[in-house]
């Protein structure tokens, strides 16, 4: 009975309610509530609870009775001491937590579907978005051949222009999607285009990220302004394709009633065996845009892809578990590639979208295209793997010796894919290809562990220069090499998952100028994905520049950053290495790396456009350029002021405030940038401790002929000059707050004790 009275007591119920509200505000709501707003919410809720429980004198007396007893009753001495310690300690801790330097990145909120304008100006015309309709949907019935021809044209346009970000599956997982924040839209999500009118899509496609209203900031959307690259009819064709492929209907404000004669389609068994006609339809819808109508790898998207889509007619498949004497893969090998995709390529994971019957049908279709549908499974011999040994130091030493003698010619001593043999590698179709960067497993295909690496060593990668090694290496040596290859990822910093802040560490004394200075090891390293410019003409669709790693240090006067970019080729025009690996038909340029920061901080969440800023929000670009042999030129470091992609960045006449030195070794550029924290120049950002500053990076691969806006880049991240803690100040405030809380507690206890004695 006493326990029930305790649970029903207004003080307990009030504390329970406030606790639940705190948990909801702090941990349940998504996106999370900022700390300052959380405090406001809790103050409001606490005041509201007190108003309720003190509504009348009787309720107030019951509510405060336990507190009066705690502070005043002689029998409550021990609980009173415990409460005193809890209050003093709690206030001291909370004060310390609030005044200590914070390294949490600023919270960014954006509207997913911002309100469109009532009218739109595009293609030299003004559109009323409230009345705008898809002309093809009005002109043709959706089941007609004419409309399906429009959808087919839209598919070709999508795979030539949109697949790189939104993906083959239209799920926002294109092979460059990981570069962007926010990520590209998932068209398969029922909360996306299924809830939108086609006029909304027309607005977003034609105007892109720069056309977003203010609530759509921060300016991070990578959506191109397609009005500049597509015609009006092409935009409508893509919109028609999006709805047809996903099976959604565009939202309409008009109420639609089903006809009384309408017949619901019969349910389809997803595992029922498909007819040849149905299999062909699946192939045409899901595969032909890349692999071609005839399976020859010449789909509409193939020209802009690296690596090229597989040519099924050759009957050659890179990733299989059958031995090198078996020409073909098993059904399970093909099924694995279809369901799980090939990381680092345009081949997506079809798991969840294709049924088992559709996958089985496509496997048979692939065999027919390659003229090997009559091969029996027992003709496909497995790899002799033996028992997988533990990676002992002795085994890793053997693996390193083998790797350096056999593999380093292509993959480089550090495994970054920098060819040292002088060979120009190509696949069986004559397409130029480059060795895998083994330090970044994010780009490995169908290879997750040492067992997979062993298979690649044993079988090779058919149709590529990667040979099989069963005749050159015994089983033990192949296992040793596979285990050593797994250690090469230690030569790189993994891509930062969910982290967006580069923490610049304060240094007492001189800052390092040499990339090899051990002082760099004290700075936390952050690695970000890079992607090529597929946003604005002239566009770049193939690049080998995938990652950038950054470290930062500062002292009383300067800030310095070491920016590392893996680059398989030493692109110094006229040098021996540049001539050896030049790409036919491509005019080599000089390698370059850039750091980009706003010219000033806005004080709001609005940032400059992440690609070289915009007219209202200019950016500073610190651009380092590699040297050249022919024509002779030294490396340069220039500060440029940029106001968007429509106008080339303007180099400053005086860039003496910036110093940058680069060094290339083992397939990687390491460039050290240095600039004073405060320059005094009106167009420069002035760095301060504890201030979050947007920062982005760009790189130009000279052997690929990259220049201007044809480069690779990141979206915005943050750099923070980690504030130096003042222990005396922080602890002093915490102790002062704790002492004040203790003093107030004692006064309340003294008055309550006096009142309790009188009662």
UniProtKB/TrEMBL annotation:
Keywords: Electron transport, Heme, Iron, Membrane, Metal-binding, Transmembrane, Transmembrane helix, Transport. InterPro entries: Cyt-c552/DMSO_Rdtase_haem-bd, Cyt_c-like_dom, Cyt_c-like_dom_sf, Cytochrome_c-type_DH. The keyword Iron applies. Residues 149-246, 274-370, 394-489 form the Cytochrome c domain. It comes from the Bacteria. GO terms for molecular function: electron transfer activity; heme binding; metal ion binding. Pfam families: Cytochrome_CBB3, EB_dh. The chain crosses the membrane at residues 36-56, 77-96, 730-750. PANTHER family: ALCOHOL DEHYDROGENASE CYTOCHROME C SUBUNIT, BLL4482 PROTEIN-RELATED. This is Cytochrome c domain-containing protein.
């Amino acid at each position: 009975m006493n326990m029930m009275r305790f649970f029903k007591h207004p003080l307990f119920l009030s504390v329970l309610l406030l606790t639940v509200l705190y948990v909801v505000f702090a941990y349940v709501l998504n996106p999370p509530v900022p700390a300052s707003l959380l405090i406001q919410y809790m103050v409001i809720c606490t005041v509201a609870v007190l108003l309720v429980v003190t509504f009348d004198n009787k309720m107030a007396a019951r509510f405060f009775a336990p507190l009066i007893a705690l502070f005043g009753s002689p029998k409550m001495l021990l609980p009173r001491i415990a409460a005193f310690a809890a209050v003093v300690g709690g206030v001291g801790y909370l004060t310390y937590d609030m005044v200590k330097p914070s390294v949490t990145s600023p919270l960014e909120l954006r509207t997913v579907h911002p309100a469109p304008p009532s009218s739109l100006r595009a293609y030299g015309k003004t559109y009323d978005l409230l009345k705008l309709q898809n002309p093809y949907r009005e002109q043709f019935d959706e089941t007609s051949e004419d409309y399906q021809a429009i959808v087919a044209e839209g598919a070709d346009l999508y795979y030539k222009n949109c697949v790189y970000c939104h993906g083959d599956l239209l799920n926002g997982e294109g092979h460059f999607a990981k570069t962007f924040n926010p990520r590209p839209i998932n068209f398969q999500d029922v909360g996306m285009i299924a809830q939108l009118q086609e006029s909304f899509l027309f607005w977003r496609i034609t105007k892109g990220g720069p056309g977003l209203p203010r609530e759509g900031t921060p300016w991070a959307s990578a959506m191109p302004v397609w009005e500049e690259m597509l015609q009006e009819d092409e935009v409508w064709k893509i919109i028609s394709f999006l709805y047809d492929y996903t099976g959604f209907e565009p939202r309409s404000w008009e109420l639609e009633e089903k006809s009384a004669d309408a017949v619901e389609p019969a349910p389809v068994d997803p595992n029922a065996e498909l007819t040849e006609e149905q299999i062909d339809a699946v192939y045409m819808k899901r595969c032909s845009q890349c692999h071609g109508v005839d399976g020859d790898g010449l789909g509409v998207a193939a020209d802009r892809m690296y690596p090229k889509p597989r040519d099924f007619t050759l009957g050659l498949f890179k990733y299989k578990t059958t031995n090198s004497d078996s020409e073909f893969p098993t059904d399970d090998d093909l099924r694995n590639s279809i369901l799980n995709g090939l990381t680092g390529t345009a081949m997506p994971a079809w798991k969840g979208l294709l049924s088992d019957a559709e996958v089985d049908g496509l496997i048979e279709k692939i065999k027919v295209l390659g003229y090997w549908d009559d091969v029996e499974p027992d003709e496909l011999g497995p790899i002799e793997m033996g028992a997988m040994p533990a990676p002992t130091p002795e085994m890793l030493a053997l693996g390193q010796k083998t790797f350096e003698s056999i593999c380093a010619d292509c993959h480089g001593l550090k495994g970054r894919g920098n060819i040292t043999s002088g060979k120009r590698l190509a696949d069986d179709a004559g397409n130029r290809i480059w060795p895998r960067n083994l330090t970044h497993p994010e780009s490995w295909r169908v290879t997750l562990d040492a067992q997979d690496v062993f298979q690649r060593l044993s079988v090779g990668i058919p149709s590529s220069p990667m040979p099989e090694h069963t005749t050159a290496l015994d089983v033990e040596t192949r296992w040793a090499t596979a285990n050593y290859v797994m250690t090469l990822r230690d030569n790189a910093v993994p891509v930062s998952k969910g982290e967006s802040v580069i923490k610049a560490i304060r240094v007492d004394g001189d800052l390092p100028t040499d990339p090899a200075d051990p002082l760099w090891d004290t700075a936390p390293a952050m690695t970000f994905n890079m992607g090529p410019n597929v946003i604005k003409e002239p566009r770049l669709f193939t690049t080998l520049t995938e990652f950038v790693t950054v470290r930062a240090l500062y002292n009383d006067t300067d800030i310095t950053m070491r920016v590392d970019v893996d680059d398989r080729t030493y692109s110094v025009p006229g040098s021996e290495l540049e001539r050896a690996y030049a790409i036919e038909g491509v005019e080599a340029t000089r390698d370059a790396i850039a750091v980009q920061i706003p010219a000033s901080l806005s004080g709001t969440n609005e940032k400059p456009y992440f690609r070289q800023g915009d007219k209202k929000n200019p950016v500073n670009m610190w651009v380092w350029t590699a040297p050249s042999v022919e024509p002779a030129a030294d490396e340069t470091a220039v500060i440029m002021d940029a106001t968007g992609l429509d106008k080339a960045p303007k180099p400053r006449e005086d860039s003496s405030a910036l110093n940058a030195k680069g060094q290339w070794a083992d397939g990687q550029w390491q460039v050290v940038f240095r600039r004073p924290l405060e320059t005094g120049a009106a167009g420069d950002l002035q760095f301060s401790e504890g201030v979050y500053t947007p920062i982005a990076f760009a790189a130009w691969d000279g052997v690929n002929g990259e220049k201007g806006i044809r480069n690779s880049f990141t979206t915005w991240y943050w750099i923070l000059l980690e504030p130096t803690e003042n222990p005396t100040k922080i602890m002093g405030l915490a102790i002062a707050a704790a002492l004040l809380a203790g003093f107030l507690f004692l006064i309340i206890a003294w008055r309550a004790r006096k009142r309790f004695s009188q009662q």
